[in-house]
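Subject: sequence -> structure tokens, single chain

Hey, anyone have a minute? Need the predicted structure for the following. Not urgent.
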Amino acid sequence: MPKTVVIALGGNALAPAGETPTIANQFRHTRESLTPVVELAREGWYIALVHGNGPQVGDSLARNELAAPEVEPLPLGVLVAETAGWIGYMIQQSLQNALERADIHRDVITVVTQTVVAHDDPALGKPTKFIGHHLSVERKDKLAAAGVAVGKDKGGTWRRLTASPLPIGLVEGEAIRRLVDAGAIVVACGGGGPPVYRDQKKGWEGVDAVVDKDRTAAILAHALKAEILLILTDIEGVFRDFGTPSAAPIRRMTVREAEAMLAGGQLGEGSMRPKVEAAVSFVRSGGSRAVIAELGSGPAALRGETGTTIVAEV
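Reply:
Had a minute. Here:
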């Protein structure tokens, strides 16, 4: 029986730092990022794709501000849904073309997915997630004066910050499961999914925040009863002593070992930490294994040849 894999792609993979994020460039990177997905589709895997939107949603906020004198700005939660739509469109079209060239007959469908969060999550009052591209000092000062949270990322550049509550469920999870079980490749939970909470009177209500896409991917993988969560990023995997001369890749570790690394503060808050937390959460909830690997090496990482595989206790 075919196995199910949930693949998480970073928004930075489609709009890397240091390059003008034109749609032409983002389409090019999208096409390049989908080679491992085509390979997995050829092997018969059931597949769901989750993508980030950090650079893109920050750009949407900037467009909001520039156009504010002429048109009503959109709130952040709506912009998350907006980016889920147009990034999903890029992935959907690019993957449809790649599958057709490979003579693989699979439907590709994008589902704008509402991600459930707690209305009183303390993270809603603490902007910690970087979005958008680097800011000039002048732009940074202007945003800070307007009350917008900014901070320096791991590269030392100024960027916007926004709140990032923990995902606890998916509104469209059952619909996505039916599509995946039918053989469709589903692009879901784009940008982590626009966050919502359940109001006793109004029903679902949106929240102006950005949910971490890796954590949402773990929720989706659990909902789909997937065997594997595959997180593709811009580095080879998890490293011991990262950033030091003694840095060494970790090919395989147990959940307990991963939790020890998290507790020891060895993983960056805005980079590898949420990926390892998502991997641990998925395996703890019954997943077979989680794999963190470099974009383009997905199939090899699933075979254990590269990347970092996290498994339950033996």
